[in-house]
Design goal:
three-stranded antiparallel beta sheet, mainly beta
Length: 162
Amino acid sequence: GDISRNEDYLAYGSDVLAVADGTVASVESALRDEPPQQAPTDIGLAQLGGNSVILDIGGGNYVFLAHLIPGSATVMAGDKVVRGQVLGRLGNSGNTTEPHLHLHVSRAPLPLSGDNVPYVIDRFAFVGSVDADSHFVAGPNAGARTLELPLEGAVIDFPAAP
């Protein structure tokens, strides 16, 4: 598709799901999507994550899911959510040059602050990777993975829930 249109990116508009049961700590949903392939120059520190949802998953841990489409959040602060529940739709808001999901776990209920917490994904399929020239490279050793965290540049797929 046209790399200058957010809507032409495969991930754009995809459902963003809760990765664990928890309570919504905060929601930002009013920031604009940025044009793809252009680094934004007019956003402040508070807008770096763009539209986002922060989940309190207990034990002092918070999940930050960022770069959602404006107005797409389906939850509000204080809502209880369950793993797999739709939180919003993937967009290109904040400090980003193309639609993608920013996800991290930290010990603070604020965007991009606090100590990061290591985590693993319970199951996914490793498909390949993206090389330095942004080309897809299949495998090697493509297939199912459990309790791992994909490396940077990995292309993965999530199988349907059993």
